[in-house]
């Protein structure tokens, strides 16, 4: 079961890096229109969309991706605790 937990945590970490990359792509004009940008958009937007509905932007700064990454991190910590209790 430790291998399964490690695999899940690795997936969460990779997804976090994808989210960070997608966020940074907004700083460069045309980056999100590239093939890699479109791939990241398809992977990240479904997760980010609910956070954008509930977390309002602060001026011109959208903090919803930060909240999404923190939530993802907290969920992974919850999985560690859950696996620790079950196994």
UniProtKB/TrEMBL annotation:
Q: Which InterPro entries match?
A: CCB3/YggT (IPR003425)
GO CC aspect terms:
membrane
Q: Which Pfam families match?
A: CCB3_YggT
Q: Which residues cross the membrane?
A: 7-28, 63-86
Coiled-coil stretches are none
* Entry's family note: Belongs to the YggT family.
Annotated protein name in UniProt:
Membrane protein
In its UniProt entry, the species of origin is given as: Alkalibacillus haloalkaliphilus
